[in-house]
């Protein structure tokens, strides 16, 4: 399983007021951004199970109705919009994170059964279950009696 | 905005960094390093609002305590999904975490409001009435 892009050298992150756990920007490609908010790349765990792959993505602030999971050929994209949750009428005194949308792409090395992908978003964590396509199923050709 | 000694939150930021260094969390900060959960602190005339990104935590996983001018967040993030045979990426942190924040003034422990939704925690802390700066009217003689 490969990220579409190389992981940015995390050691380079600034050690400043901006916060110890600076989020990584999402890759800015694939069309014009339509929103003015920044987009960040969610931290992910990706594990292989007997059935296929499971991806866990930290996407705090994401709601199910703005979540978008798409797979095209072998490129998987996850995306979610996040509304700013800063209280109004108050001044920022300490900022350790910025609020923005989430987006990340993955290149999937194995054949996935796209019809059986399951997505679950709970407490700001996306769990994606990607079952491996069964070879037998992929090869089956319906032959009409004739 | 950050360096001036008149900023009452300067000390808070300094202490927070020191505290995080002291605790040097092995756990949930994980790949990005740094402290978990990341917090934003907002100040208003009536009190302080804290927001924190706590993905994966439910109300039961999180322990919040407020004592005078100190707020402590404690909790635990769960480990790997079941049935994992191999890891391709491991960026999310797991394990126990503790973060302590020293506010510039004591807050009313009876009036703390906390809400948790979609992995975002919001804490609302109020300055006690008696403690608020009072505006003195100057009477014209």
Automatic annotation (TrEMBL), chain A:
Residues 1-44 are annotated as: Disordered. CDD domains: ACD_sHsps-like. Pfam families: HSP20 (PF00011). PROSITE patterns: SHSP. InterPro entries: A-crystallin/Hsp20_dom (IPR002068), HSP20-like_chaperone (IPR008978), Small_HSP (IPR031107). Residues 1-26 have a biased composition (Basic and acidic residues). Residues 35-146 form the SHSP domain. Signal peptide: none annotated. PANTHER family: HEAT-SHOCK PROTEIN 20 FAMILY MEMBER. This is HSP20 family molecular chaperone IbpA. It comes from Hasllibacter halocynthiae.
Automatic annotation (TrEMBL), chain B:
Keywords: Stress response. Residues 30-141 form the SHSP domain. Gene3D superfamilies: 2.60.40.790. PANTHER family: HEAT-SHOCK PROTEIN 20 FAMILY MEMBER. Belongs to the small heat shock protein (HSP20) family. This is Heat shock protein Hsp20.
